[in-house]
Write a structure and sequence with these properties.
- With about 80 residues, this protein is mainly alpha-helical.
- It has three helices and two strands; from the N terminus they run ααββα.
- Strands 1-2 form a two-stranded antiparallel ribbon.
- Helix 1 packs across helix 3 (about 70-80).
- About 10% of the residues are buried.
């Protein structure tokens, strides 16, 4: 009786996928500070490219000429911000 062994090959993520994941994590970690800038009316301190990325991720949205946190953004921010115990 011969054993039939199969080798499973896990595909490696592309370089682009790795860069996108790293950028997303950087944005995730920076989101609480970004929200702080929005609350203190210092949106000018947020990079335009970051704003575009946050909107694309649906973490921020344009509302009446200003930016605001979406529900998804609130959830992400809550995951990053340690809760006060």
């Amino acid at each position: 009786m011969a054993l039939n062994s199969q080798t499973r090959v896990t595909p490696r993520p592309s370089a682009r996928a790795v860069l996108e994941a790293e950028a997303r994590e950087r944005l995730r970690q920076a989101l609480p500070a970004t929200v702080g800038h929005l609350r203190t009316h210092q949106a000018g301190r947020i990079e335009d490219s970051d704003i575009d990325a946050y909107v694309k991720l649906n973490w921020l949205e344009w509302h009446g000429g200003g930016l605001r946190l979406t529900i998804t953004g609130r959830n992400v921010c809550a995951q990053v911000t340690p809760s006060a115990a």
